[in-house]
Amino acid sequence: MIKAVAMAACASTALAATSLVASAQTLTEMSASIEACHLPHANVSDTVDVLAQQGWVLVPEGDLSSDTIELLIWPQVAFYANGDTGGEQLKAIVDLQRKTVAGFAKKKDIPQSKTRILTRQIGADAEAVLVQWLQPTPSTVNIICRFALSSASVTGQGSKDFGSPVTTKAEKGGIWTTTVLNADSLAAKINAPVTVSGIVQTQANFASEGN
Questions:
Q1: Closest CA to 48 of 148, 117, 1
Q2: Which of 210, 206, 197, 202 has the alpha carbon at shortest distance from 74?
Q3: What is the rounded CA–CA span in Å between residue 193 and residue 130?
Q4: What is the reported pTM?
Q5: Are 112 and 134 in contact (CB under 8 A)?
Q6: pLDDT digit of tens for each residue in the chain (211 aa)?
Q7: In whole angstroms, how far apart are CA 147 and each of 12, 33, 34?
Q8: What Rg, from alpha-carbon coordinates, does the chain have?
Q9: Closest by CA position to 189, among listed 126, 75, 95, 100
Q10: Domains of the chain: which residue ranges?
Q11: Alpha carbon distances (Å) from 50 to 29, 39, 57, 94
Q12: Which of 35, 41, 136, 197 sits at a 20 to 30 Å CA gap from 25?
């Protein structure tokens, strides 16, 4: 069993959750979900349990619904869109990432890598998060969360397809990066609905003791 030694703790000041039912929130009020991904958990199930307190529901292993895939492609697409696309057009990148995201749901756990997908509903809006728990060395654990958020969690719309990523460093360790999307513009370019208004990626690294 891994005994975690915290080097990355909470993401600034978290707003306490009093209900398992998610309510409409601004990005600022996402702090409790961000914090869940920064806590030094020795097991991916511990991260899932804390996210559940914010209304996130674990998706069973296996085939993802098309709706969930359409949410989770955007953290992947934004990564490429803000970097070197290799000359690929946006629609081609989206098509490729649909296959990539579908594969995440079928990944089998190994001791060094565990992946979980969770979704939640805020009114009529759906959101999703991909959680990756990684142990690249016996003494190090990394937790990465990629949130695909609706307009219920991200207010406003960027003037560009993908806004410039804004990285925030938590007071006691860990970082998160926020990117605002222009959903209307993206939908027109890929000829498909886009309901994601912004993405947040968190990363926390901490030391651990091996089994």
A1: 117
A2: 197
A3: 21
A4: 0.85
A5: yes
A6: 333 333 333 333 333 332 223 433 346 568 899 999 999 998 999 999 999 999 999 999 888 999 999 999 999 999 887 765 555 689 999 999 999 999 998 889 999 999 999 999 999 999 999 999 999 999 999 999 999 999 989 877 777 899 888 999 987 679 999 999 999 999 999 999 999 999 999 999 999 865 4
A7: 18, 9, 9
A8: 17
A9: 95
A10: 3-209
A11: 15, 9, 11, 31
A12: 41
Close Cβ partners of 79 (under 8 Å, ≥ 6 residues apart): none
Q: Which of 33, 58, 38, 55 is nearest to 116 (CA)?
A: 58
For 49, the token pair is 């349990």
Sign of CA dihedral 16, 177, 155, 47: negative
User: Which two three-digit tokens encode residue 106?
Assistant: 């079928």
**Is-contact 71 103, C-beta < 8 A?**
no
SS3 195: coil
Token match 């060395």: residue? 137
Alpha-carbon distance values, 153 to 8, 17, 91, 125 (Å): 24, 15, 25, 10
